[in-house]
Amino acid sequence: MLSLGRCVAIQTATVKRAARVLTVACTSSMATDPAKKRVLIVGGVAGGASCAARLRRLDEQAEITIFERGPYVSFANCGLPYFVGDVIKEQSSLLVANAAKFNKWFDVVVKESTEVVSVDRVAKTVKTKNLNSGEEDVYSYDYLVLSPGGNAIRPPLPGADLPGIFTVKTIPDANAIKSWINEKDAKTAVVVGGGFIGLEMVENLVHRGLKCSLVEMLPQVMPPYDPEVVEPVHERLRAVGVDLHLGDGVAGFEATPGGALLVKTQSGKAHGADLVVLAIGVRPETILARQSGLELGSRGGIRVDEQMRTSDPAIFAVGDAVEVKDFVTGEQTLIPLAGPANRQGRIVANVITGNEPGRFRGSQGTSVVGLFGLTLAATGASEKSLKRLGRDFRKVYLHINNHAGYYPGAKQIDIKLLFDPKDGRVLGMQAVGEEGVEKRVDVVAMAIQKGGTVFDLEEAELCYAPQYGSAKDPVNMVGMVAANVMRGQHPLTSWDELNLQELVSDPGTVLVDVREPSELEKVGKVEGAINMPLSSLRQQLSKLQDKDKKYYVYCQVGLRGYVATRQFLQRGFDAVNVSGGFKSFLQQMPERHAKL
Ligand code: FAD
């Protein structure tokens, strides 16, 4: 255990005594060895704990202290929804490490329930307050690492502080929700916000037997994703009985005389519930940074350089509190995810100790969420973000089995790949399905980080046995489709680029459905399309005269459309395949779906 002198406390005083204790500047006579780096870390969870452990592994001499405002360091906040849902049964399972372990394994002093209340950048000290005793201390540092995370947003709406309205950020938050459910015998819940925490909370509340409504202001859940990609998530939520209210923001909350809550929305609706979970995002925690005059970025996070250094060279910042560079688009962004926080924490330790890697590459926002048997994952840029930035891109939709179709249990994955039409550089991928989704997204995440192109995906050598994949893995396949587009061998468009009404009424264009008639009868077709089944297309094309027309070809998922398009082209017709076929049509035009 470190002694107080060796650890860097230079002034200890309770609040009551504080006034008469001298403000003592840190000197070497305080038993602090000037040769040893004194590192203070604010926040002891993802970024902070990761930084402390790495620091110790690299520097046995450093004096490392973590201050954590909450009662636990290094807890698994990502597990909280599953703890609420009783999937994770024991609270102890959420404690990845505790103060004693940090002390024994890493010789790191951990001060739990201790808030850093101010930073004096000139004196290089921080002032702390023990939240149980009120005791205040001052510690000096050579390096200060800020990893204070983000704050769950509680909107300034009428009734937002009513009992029974919760956010989910800490173990005490999760315990409060669990106690409320048990004590009130809660049967219904409204979750506000359809991001990944909101979705995980919905799944877990349903798992506990509660009837759940999800209210989301945008017309889709998972806002960073493109709308058509999350359409299967909407379907799944509805299929399991979740009341999904999209495109309707919350206007306020009311308590009913019977003890329930009402969530009132901007459209004038009111959803009753026994409890409400607010999951509308996190805001970077920047109080210390602002108070001490550190620069903030345009998105409201702490500004850092590639070494995670703030505008003060002795202060680093990591995790949800910082702005980072988007790896693909280069713009400043906020990525509140555990992976970047952990890696940034390590990088700070490397920088402080002069080790590699000493540079954060930027974040791709690689993310995954699972709900009700579906997995939704993405990496890199979305179409929305590329459009917002005016970036040129092309896209490919693919609906493909996760493993060989002949091996039992194959499940379809819906994939959307975005790439640069200039050089085929991969810009982003989103995928949804029941099996093997995140594995494909992870492969493409690595390709993006290495500046990979669709030609690299085409040639990627990946695992294959029938129960795991296909000899041409979905990653290869999406690469092949895109590479064929790049080579001009596969003219491709997508439903959202077409004006269907014009297309089918224009005598110069023809919409061709190449599926078999029995399929059309079973699943429907796009209005105005003519049916030329692939199985007899050669014969039909040999009789077809209209070479002046343009043929828009589609099938069920895109593959037969491609095969047919090649036949059209090689016989001198102008043809283009509609990416993703009828399946993409249904996902991109859900309102038409309803009319079919
Ligand atoms: P945190 O891990 O939040 O730690 C910050 C700590 O700093 C807090 O404990 C806070 O108490 C402390 N602190 C703040 N200010 C002070 C102060 N002044 N003095 C002392 N201590 C202070 N990410 C994923 O990638 N995948 C997931 O599945 C996932 N699931 C999540 C589920 C939930 C419910 C939540 C809340 C988050 C989830 N995340 C997930 C996000 C992930 O947990 C965060 O991105 C990550 O923890 C950020 O790390 P951090 O170190 O920046 O902040």
UniProtKB/TrEMBL annotation:
Keywords: FAD, Flavoprotein, Oxidoreductase, Redox-active center. This is Rhodanese domain-containing protein. It holds the Pfam family Pyr_redox_2. It comes from Volvox africanus. One of its GO terms (molecular function) is oxidoreductase activity. SUPFAM superfamilies: FAD/NAD(P)-binding domain (SSF51905), FAD/NAD-linked reductases, dimerisation (C-terminal) domain (SSF55424), Rhodanese/Cell cycle control phosphatase (SSF52821). The keyword Cell membrane does not apply. Belongs to the class-III pyridine nucleotide-disulfide oxidoreductase family. PROSITE patterns: RHODANESE_3. The keyword Flavoprotein applies. Residues 505-594 form the Rhodanese domain. InterPro entries: FAD-bd_OxRdtase, FAD/NAD-bd_sf, FAD/NAD-binding_dom, FAD/NAD-linked_Rdtase_dimer_sf, Pyr_nucl-diS_OxRdtase_dimer, Rhodanese-like_dom, Rhodanese-like_dom_sf. SMART domains: RHOD. Its cofactor is FAD.
